[in-house]
Amino acid sequence: MRFIFTFSFFLIPFLTLILNSCYKGKSVDLIVHNAKIHTMNDANVVSEAMAIKDGKIVEVGPERQILNRYSANEEIDAMGKDVYPGFTDAHGHILSYAQQILSVDLVGCKSMDELLVRIEKYQQKNKRKFIVGRGWDQSLWTSKDFPTNEKLNKLFPTIPICLTRIDGHALLANDALLKLASIDPSTKIDGGIIHLKDGKCSGFLVDNAMNPIYKLIPPFPKNEIIDAIGEIQTELFQYGITGVHEAGIQFEDIALFKELIDKHDFDLNLYAMLMSSDKNIDFAKKNGVYTYKNLLIRSFKVMGDGALGSRGALLKQPYSDQHNHFGVLTTSMDEMKRIASICEKVGYQMNTHAIGDSTNKIMLDIYQRIFETNRDHRWRIEHAQVVDPKDFDLFGKYGVFPSVQPTHAVSDQRWAEDRIGTKRMMGAYAYKTLLNQYGMLAIGTDFPVELTDPFLTIHAAVNRMNGDNYPSGGFYNNESITLQECIKGMTTWAAFASFQENEIGTLEKGKDATFVIFENPVVALKEFQPNFSSYTYIKGKKVYSTE
Ligand SMILES: [Zn+2]
Asked: At what angle do helices 333-346 and 278-287 cross, to 10 degrees?
């Protein structure tokens, strides 16, 4: 009797527990099922369900298998929707975008007069002592000449005004600001151009000539910056973007990002490149590879040249639309070599902005040296926009990672041929050729130069068209890549480009549960299809949903 009592008292609950757990399966935090899970692994497996615990993927597999094996308090029936690893924007500027949000928005201005109206409206509301604007593009105006500051001086004779061009490589300053920066017609700045009109500064400054101006711009109040970054993060999550390669910060910005992470729900995976200033180099020497929660720093961003739109990119032969003008190298060759050896010493990646064919060749030659000692260096060229066809094979030969922004191709289509002529266009925005050389591309947008929408990137990369489906046959369509390749550029390859392939980029056992469920099927039809996230998760945490 006593035995039976013991049996019933202890064993029966024990058996029930076993039966229960068999029935319910192993306990996890979240199950996503009835989905089309694009794992983006080597075999490109598409699966139906996945189980997630402690921010990691426990298993990905067929519907029944996952539902039988696991139980969770939270389940998402994805209703057959596409699930992808969270997208990464492999070249963006969160801090500049925040500045842009707080500045006068000049994107899409159709004339100088519209630009002035927008500044006046902004100033009525904000009453700033120093006005900063961003995003104008004179190629949209009837007169496509670079603007001058006369009208600006009349309206604002005393308040300094700095208006940066859409590509971030040129600005228009009023006389009050030029005076403050001590810039006059006799000023010479290496790697920069100070435009003159009738012997007087026109206010139009290119590349390094902007530096004395930028030094004077007072920072926006910190609370305003934090709010703006919050807005940007939400926008990115809405598009399914869970990571950004922030292309150039100062070490002072690290404190801001840490504060955002600790106090303001900044969950975005941030791979931040340090600008190559002395202070930042000191930081790298002292800290080496630096991680703080979702912030990773282990690379330098170096500015090789300017942009094509403002004719600052350095070309081997003169510009087709400006006599005897080659553009400028914004960092000297010796300095670039010095930074390269520092990178080698501290184990940092070197990511160089190179737009012109001359700068690309210079960088490929500098990168060659590291390839001799480190075959898997993953050093990048940001943009790789115009490449001399005879230099393409060097990307493959020296293992140089091309980091490209497909929307640049379809935005620049209005004037790219004017700048470099049809022959050089054969090596411009040549994403397919670059992919064939290196075997991977890191894909981004360069926001706020372009919009953050990754579906515009897909449309530009696959169909070579802009959001208005122009041009109908695609812009140099022979350089289009496939949908799968484009998504790899924003997932697996972007992870590899930032040394994070063990954590993110694919949906596989052991990887971070960082994924997005898209509202509509992810496709690349000839007509642009907007798409948004229904759910965005980072490391198992829901950071966005349309619920
Ligand atoms: Zn950039």
From this structure: 20
